[in-house]
Write a structure and sequence with these properties.
The structure holds two protein chains of two kinds. By secondary structure, chain A is mainly β. Chain A has one domain: Immunoglobulin-like (Sandwich). Chain A contains one helix and eleven strands; from the N terminus they run H-E-E-E-E-E-E-E-E-E-E-E. In chain A, strands 2-3-10-7-8 form a five-stranded antiparallel beta sheet, with no helix packed on it. Chain A has a three-stranded antiparallel beta sheet with strand order 9-4-11, with no helix packed on it. About 5% of the residues of chain A have low confidence. Chain B is of the alpha+beta class. Chain B is built from two helices and eleven strands, in the order H-E-E-E-E-E-E-E-E-H-E-E-E. Chain B has a five-stranded antiparallel beta sheet. Chain B has a three-stranded antiparallel beta sheet with strand order 9-4-11, with no helix packed on it. The longest helix of chain B is centred in the first third of the chain and has 19 residues. In chain B, 28% of the residues are buried. About 10% of the residues of chain B have low confidence. The chains are: A mainly beta, B alpha+beta. Chains A and B meet through helix 1 and strand 1 of A and helix 1, strand 1, strand 2, strand 3 and strand 10 of B. Strand 1 of chain A pairs parallel with strand 2 of chain B, so a sheet runs across the interface.
Chain lengths: 175, 153
């Protein structure tokens, strides 16, 4: 009798203590961050103007030809564009021969040019150190269209040498 | 009589000890709170840096991991109206169906990951990739997102 009572008690206790497997869940919140720095970059860092981009070949004295290069500046911050002459100091050159070369910047700049400026670093010239262009930025507007216009004029008193005339311009975006 | 009481006490004590040795089925993430900062900053259009975080799942039962958010859109890295294209991966040896490739943030919320074994402790790695637009400069700033990984059993 005592043994039976003892066994029953033990079974009851076991039933009370045996854990029951119950469903459950445990959440974990993961907080994530990423950082975008201020930057500006040209969509095409090495664009070019080829012979096919001009309004035509020079075929006479005192003849004007122009070309326009559409550039895209990606910027998420106010940016300053500074032009400098690179190859042949930005003057269209063929050996010892040159064409009168001038430029304009238009597009998404606060003060676009309304006339061509001669290539050169002197006062009032395109590559003068103080000749810069400002691109303002508004949140969400990270793409800006900038146009570089170039004009070539042949001499008015003789025929320039035939051939390809080349030069280079660097537009530096800084912020 | 006194001997019987002693015997009962011994048996009950033994049963308690035995019962105490049985583990209750369950799971828990240890090491919270979890924060994942993508280490490389975005400094140009089209860049897509990524980062990862190892989370520890303590469990003694098979379980399933699901992904959710506290409010719609929390899974996308956002800052003042701008967003980064956000992708995720969940990996780890304990996962029966871990991700081999990046999963779009919206798809990530539909994923269920099976943890068939019983631990006791497994490393689960969450990966995130933040991709900037390739056709403009994304706004500068710190972008935030938040996801909830729930282990269920």
């Amino acid at each position: 009798m005592r043994r039976t009572w003892m066994v029953l008690t033990a079974v009851a206790v076991v039933l009370m203590l045996v854990p029951t497997a119950s469903a459950g869940s445990a959440p974990a919140v993961v907080s994530i961050t990423a950082t975008v720095d201020s930057f500006a970059e040209w969509a095409n860092p090495s664009p070019g103007i080829g012979a096919e981009n001009w309004t035509g070949h020079v075929g006479a004295v005192n003849q004007t030809r122009t070309a326009t290069l559409a550039l895209t500046l990606y910027a998420n911050v106010a940016t300053t564009i500074t032009p400098t002459g690179s190859t042949n100091s930005g003057i269209l050159t063929n050996g010892a021969e040159t064409l009168s070369t001038s430029y304009q910047i238009t597009g998404d700049v606060t003060d676009p040019d309304i006339a061509y400026m001669p290539a050169g670093t002197g006062s009032g010239e395109f590559f003068e150190a103080t000749n810069t262009y400002t691109v303002t930025h508004a949140a969400g507007d990270g793409s800006h269209g900038i146009n570089l216009l170039v004009q070539a004029v042949s001499p008015d008193n003789r025929a320039p040498d035939a051939g390809d005339y080349t030069c280079g311009v660097t537009l530096t975006a800084s912020w | 009589m006194r001997h019987d009481i002693v015997r009962i006490a011994v048996v009950v004590a033994g049963l308690i000890c035995a019962a105490g040795g049985l583990a209750l089925g369950g799971a828990n993430w240890s090491g919270q709170p979890y924060t994942l900062a993508v280490p490389d900053h975005i400094t140009g259009a089209g860049q897509a840096p990524s980062g990862s975080l190892v989370m520890t799942l303590d469990h003694d039962t098979p379980c399933t991991i699901t992904v959710s958010v506290a409010k719609a859109g929390d899974e996308v890295l956002a800052s003042a109206g701008d967003v980064l294209v956000t992708s995720y991966k969940l990996t780890g040896a304990a996962l029966q169906n871990g991700d081999a490739d990046w999963v779009a943030s919206s798809t990530f919320l539909t994923r269920n990951y099976s943890v068939p074994e019983t631990g006791p402790s497994d490393g689960i790695t969450i990966w995130v990739r933040a991709a900037a637009s390739s056709d403009r400069a994304t706004n500068a700033g710190t972008y935030s997102a938040s996801v909830i990984l729930t282990a269920s059993w």
